[in-house]
Amino acid sequence: MKTAITFLLLALPAMIFAQHQPIDLLIGTYTNNGKSQGIYVYTFDPATGSTTLKSITESRNPSFLAISADRKYVYAANENGDGEGAASAYAYEQATGKLTLLNQQLTEGGGPCHVTTDSRGSHVVISNYGGGSVNVFPIEHDGSLGPIKQMIQQKGSGPDKSRQQAPHVHSAFFTPDQTRIYIQDLGTDKINIYDFKPTGGGDPLVPAAQPFVKSAPGGGPRHIAQSADGSRVYLVQEMTAKVMVYRQQNERLEAVQEVEMNEDGFSGKNGAADIHLSPDGKFLYASNRGDANTLAIYRVNAADGTLAKIGNQSVLGGGPRNFTISPDGKYLLVANQNTDEVVVFARDLETGLLTDTGHRIAVPVPVCLVFVD
């Protein structure tokens, strides 16, 4: 017993230090208005919620970022028009925050708006909103991107003739076990489902036995969040500002609930954008731009994964396109695209509610936030 107590006393300072050790925060931006330079790297202090600028890397419209599982490489979706949409690969030096461009590949699809990579470090997947397609790039041994290995053109339309006249792929997320990928298509009201087969020489993405699941008509699927075990999928619908809850059963998704994001009586313009679960899985958050500029906060039912709305939080700015939660769950950071700053909120781990820390990151047109833990 004495030995065990002595060990704990010796280990406690190291444990406390690890919990409060600064981590990096990557910020992707739009540069086409001339205010931003590209990708910004900040040091984030989890003890206070404050930040310090670490590096700036010039890049054209790096509107979404992903980091490799080994934290050595960063991948960007460069949301350029006129056939110049691209995927970029960078070597990442964590000590300095320096990003070194390895190479860039054209996506051959209009408006690349989302990028993800698998935990094996074998492929990068780009979602092309404008072209309604998905690109799969192989990752080379040095972290650079090879030529397009697979391109999937989605088909179809939705009931809203002004925005759903054609496919608009908005995001792609691997399942926690990395065996499948969910591809959200705003234009067709579908989550398209593919099995992920990174080895074997064939196409990495193969239509699953359940090739898709529908959202609500006219909802406009944008992003998803998943429970740690993959049994629950939460979809934010951009056009209606509602969250759809799906249950995974016998390798099939089934819709079980749809809940409102807005406060009672809201009648303004919607633009729902992003969605995340807290690290402990107890709370869900979803952002709405348009005239709302709020985060909807839900408690997750531990038994069945359904949601109970507990409140709305003003983002204290405009255009909350993307947000993220710190690895320790104590902070939630919102990228307010229209007001050129990131707002840092403190999270109550017991209630899920947010309070303003007073900390701000002044960065032009922030649209993507990625912690490096």
How would you spell out the order of helices and strands? HEEEEEEEEEEEEEEEEEEEEEEEEEEEE
| Helical percentage | under 10%
Low-confidence stretches: none
Adjacency order of strands in the biggest sheet: 3-2-1-28
Radius of gyration (Å): 20 Å
**How much is the average pLDDT?**
95
Terminal Cα span: 34 Å
Characterization of this structure:
The protein has one helix at 2-19; strands spanning 23-29, 38-45, 50-58, 62-67, 73-78, 86-93, 98-106, 112-117, 123-128, 133-138, 150-153, 169-174, 180-185, 190-196, 205-214, 221-226, 232-237, 242-249, 252-260, 272-277, 283-288, 294-300, 307-314, 320-325, 331-336, 341-347, 354-362, 366-372. By secondary structure, it is mainly β. A four-stranded antiparallel sheet has the order 3-2-1-28, with no helix packed on it. It has a four-stranded antiparallel sheet with strand order 4-5-6-7, with no helix packed on it. A hairpin with a 6-residue loop joins strand 26 and strand 27 (354-362). The two termini are 34 Å apart.
Draw up the topology in text:
Elements: H1 2-19, E1 23-29, E2 38-45, E3 50-58, E4 62-67, E5 73-78, E6 86-93, E7 98-106, E8 112-117, E9 123-128, E10 133-138, E11 150-153, E12 169-174, E13 180-185, E14 190-196, E15 205-214, E16 221-226, E17 232-237, E18 242-249, E19 252-260, E20 272-277, E21 283-288, E22 294-300, E23 307-314, E24 320-325, E25 331-336, E26 341-347, E27 354-362, E28 366-372
Antiparallel strand pairs: 1-2, 1-28, 2-3, 4-5, 5-6, 6-7, 8-9, 9-10, 10-11, 12-13, 13-14, 14-15, 16-17, 17-18, 18-19, 20-21, 21-22, 22-23, 24-25, 25-26, 26-27
